[in-house]
UniProtKB/TrEMBL annotation:
Stated name of the protein: Uncharacterized protein
Low complexity composition bias: residue spans: 787-796
Record's compositionally biased regions (Gly residues): 807-816
Disordered: annotated span: 771-816
Length: 816
């Protein structure tokens, strides 16, 4: 490390650093501007990095002795160049642009540099197409350091008149990669937006900047020192998990640093906060009194410069903010990272949709040997269902650098048509990423819009919940890109996946599901706990939303297989929710005499009420005349309901209006033993198929110690079909005598709740004789006698079809 004062000394040191290293047997030598009162002492993280590189600092004065610039330039020329040295490069002492051009010429051509006040600025050559470039703002002192970096890395170098013209140069000149160097204030949000969406080359352009030339020279020194460290076989570790404790970890080559934050702070892990506050001397222009370190509430605070990571992918919204942010100068988490150990960062300049899947993709690209420019380009080209990339990321660093141990090897891709699908075969050498670009003319009838495309695994190695894919927009408009990636390296064998038309739900299917979710929430009006119902709707949405949003960004490679069976999966998920709702009702019924009309009367309006002498139909329990109460849901739009009332049996049915189901009970005898069997018949009154879940139980069954088998049963009924179940009720102990109500609660697939009730006399002292029915004669609901109701043979504890005409042609199942 050749320590220099101002930029003119830096230029002299750069021109001889290569020869000085060769003469002294050093692995490398690069100049660094000494800290000044403004730039401050290097932070601890930077000093620790220098220690790992086994750095020795030598003042330039030790090589030249005292004197003016001319004398020192001659001393360096005589010390490091032979008598027949090539012609000198005459450099002006200022402005930065011509001085930078002279530095680049001297270093790249290995010629001595001298200063001349009358030196003519070297002519800026016309840019040739292609190549890797460093572009610098001619007005910025950072251009001088940028010229040294370009020469040291074998890149081309050019200066532009103003930093605002850097984007024009990118659009005008064909290039393989580009690094843009200017004062940090040049890179405002509009500039970064243009940069992130640039597709002029396969590598996303990089930005390099700092608060001062001295800090920038230290950043460039670390870039080159780490390059030489890697070339000599040195290497830092790789993270074995995420998150790692940044305060205590050993130096890392790369790390995906993800967490909520902004341009000033990034939360990381459970208790760490990466802070962007610079030392006080760098906070010029900050509002008086602004100091986030004073009274800092974060015990796990770590300054960005102390994070021991060489290359970081910073997944925190708006962290790439420079001159036009809200935080004042001297408060930037991104520039603070680059002021310490870190040399390169990929970060979003705006809000980004950061998910665990995106973190996995970033990790896979880094470990897969991609160059930084390729990583940024892949992340910026990801497309959602409608095919428009968001492009939120910018690269702070050199696009050509590879954070991983070995560069990636391009996947060998083969395509084969398989009906209306395309099978893609990739062969990769143990990478985590299968990277393919499929020409549109290979897709045939498969639409190229990502919303209409699906990816399915063919090879067994890809059938895993840890394997995901993402569509991306390649630079050419006649193709579509697919990234398939995992959490671990893929085996080095041919791996195949299928690209096909996505089987997406229709608009009508989505509308039906939304209506079902609203129906679940509306059950709160019938007395169920709103928090419980909200948990059910969340559970349904958590399972189905990932499929309905297919393909997400990124997406599970298994989800389209589930999506092709969406109807069955939806029915299964809704059946689980139906059973949960019925289970909640059963629990409520165990503690109280539950009449749901008493609970929803406050939410509904009673719009019609028939008189007892204006019968609707005979009571299905005792043949007495019934009346009905009709309710409507008012402004909430709740489904109308009808409560059917018998003057003798009380409420016998509480159903939606019109009713979709009817339930009848076989027999009406008393509960006279510790075990009783009740047969219940369910009939579909509607003109459509009904999926139904139901249970039967007594009011306050827990206090009576009554259990029932089966618990909750499911059945499927076509229009007009019916089926029967036998429920077996058992008592742990002898129940007390009571007039109880036996409820059957039934819930359809559309979450329409019905309740049917039968009054039952619990009499354990003997068998009562029904009032008005002599022993041995039939009552209106079946035979009765001294031994109680004759129910016929006891059915097993699973549902059986009703025998004879009108029996259900389907199946039913028990809870078990």
């Amino acid at each position: 490390m050749l320590l220099t004062g101002d930029l003119r000394e830096y230029a002299l040191a750069a021109s001889v650093s290569r020869r000085f290293a060769a003469q002294r047997g050093l692995s490398s030598c690069q100049p660094v501007c000494r800290p000044t009162p403004v730039s401050g002492r290097p932070p601890p993280g930077q000093l620790r990095a220098q220690g790992h590189y086994r750095t020795v600092g030598i003042p330039l004065d030790a090589l030249t002795g005292p004197g003016n610039l001319d004398r020192r330039a001659r001393a360096l020329r005589h010390a490091f160049f032979p008598a027949h040295a090539p012609p000198v490069v005459a450099a002006p002492t200022w402005p930065p642009g011509p001085l930078a051009r002279a530095v680049f010429t001297a270093v790249s051509s290995d010629r001595p540099l001298v200063f001349a006040e009358t030196a003519t600025a070297l002519r800026e050559p016309a840019p040739e197409p292609g190549g890797h470039w460093v572009l610098a703002d001619s007005r910025s002192p950072l251009a001088v350091v940028a010229a040294g970096y370009a020469a040291a890395t074998g890149k081309r170098f050019a200066v532009v008149e103003r930093g605002e013209h850097l984007g024009d140069w990118l659009r005008r000149v064909e290039h393989d990669s580009a690094i843009l160097v200017a004062e940090h204030g040049v890179f405002g949000k509009p500039f970064l937006q243009e940069l992130a969406t640039s597709r002029q080359s396969p590598l996303a352009p990089g930005v390099m900047t700092a608060y001062s030339a001295a800090r920038f020279s230290r950043l460039v020194w670390r870039l080159l020192a780490h390059r030489d460290f890697r070339a000599g076989g040195g290497r830092f570790g790789e993270p074995d998990r995420r998150p790692v404790p940044l305060r205590d970890t050993a130096p890392l080559e790369h790390y995906v640093l993800s967490g909520h934050g902004n341009e000033l702070h990034v939360h990381h892990g459970d208790d760490e906060v990466v802070c962007g506050a610079f030392p006080v001397e760098e906070r010029t222009g900050a509002p008086e009194g602004f100091d986030c370190e004073r009274g800092c509430p974060y015990p796990g605070r770590i300054r960005g410069a102390d994070v021991p990571v060489t290359t970081a992918v910073l997944l925190s919204c708006e962290s790439a903010t420079f001159g036009d942010g809200f935080a004042p100068r001297g408060h930037s988490v991104l520039l603070n990272l680059l002021d310490g150990w870190c040399t390169s960062v990929i970060a979003p300049y705006k809000h980004a949709m950061v998910t665990p899947e995106l973190e996995s993709l970033a990790e896979a690209l880094v470990r897969g040997g991609y160059r930084l420019g390729e990583i940024a380009e892949r992340l910026n080209s990801l497309v959602g269902p409608h095919g428009v990339p968001d492009a939120p990321f910018v690269l702070l660093g050199d696009p050509e650098l590879v954070p991983a141990t070995t560069p990636r090897v391009d996947s060998a891709v083969r395509l084969a048509r398989q009906g209306n699908a395309v099978v893609v075969e990739c062969r990769t050498a143990g990478s985590r990423v299968l990277d393919s670009v499929i020409p549109l003319d290979h897709l045939g009838p498969v639409t190229a819009v990502p919303r209409g495309l699906a990816v399915e695994p063919v090879s067994a190695e890809l059938v895993s919940a840890d394997v995901r894919f993402a569509f991306r927009s390649p630079p050419t408009a006649d193709s579509v890109g697919v990234l398939v990636f995992g959490r671990t390296e893929f085996p080095a064998v041919p791996l195949r996946f299928r690209l096909r038309r996505a089987a997406l739900p229709t608009v009508d299917e989505l509308d039906r599901l939304r209506a079902d979710l609203r129906a679940v929430a509306d059950l709160s009006a019938l007395g169920l706990d709103p928090a419980f119902l909200a948990a059910q709707t969340r559970g349904i949405a958590d399972l189905l939303d990932p499929l309905l949003a297919y393909p997400r960004l990124p997406e599970s490679i298994l989800n389209h297989t589930l999506l092709r069976h969406y109807d069955a999966l939806r029915d299964s998920v809704l059946r689980v929710a139906r059973r949960a709702v019925l289970g909640q009702l059963r629990e409520i019924l165990g503690e109280t005499a539950l009449w749901i009309s008493h609970r929803y009367a406050g939410s509904y309006g009673l719009t019609d009420r028939t008189r007892a002498d204006d019968p609707l139909r005979p009571c299905p329990r005792c043949a007495a005349s019934t009346s009905a109460w009709r309710y409507t849901g008012g402004c909430r739009g709740l489904a109308p309901r009808t409560v059917e009332v018998c003057p003798r049996c009380g409420i016998v049915a509480d159903t939606p209006d019109p009713a979709a189901l009817d339930v009848t009970f076989a027999g009406s005898g008393a509960f006279t033993d510790r075990t009783e069997h009740r047969r219940v018949t369910v009939r579909n009154l509607s003109t459509v198929r009904q999926d139904v879940s139901l249970f039967a139980q007594f009011t306050e069954w827990r206090a009576q110690g009554i259990s029932v088998e089966p618990g909750i049963v499911d059945t499927h009924l076509g229009p007009g079909e019916e089926t029967a179940f036998t429920f077996t009720f058992s008592c742990r102990d002898r129940p007390h005598d009571e007039l109880a109500s036996l409820h059957v609660f039934a819930l359809t697939a559309r979450f329409a709740l019905s309740c049917f009730t039968q009054r039952v006399l619990v009499c354990q002292a003997g068998t009562p004789t029904r009032v008005g029915v002599p022993a041995g004669e039939d009552g209106p609901n079946g035979p009765s006698g001294p031994s109680g109701p004759r129910l016929g043979p006891v059915l097993p504890m699973v549902a059986r079809p009703v025998e004879g005409a009108g029996a259900k042609r389907g199946s039913g199942g028990g809870e078990g």
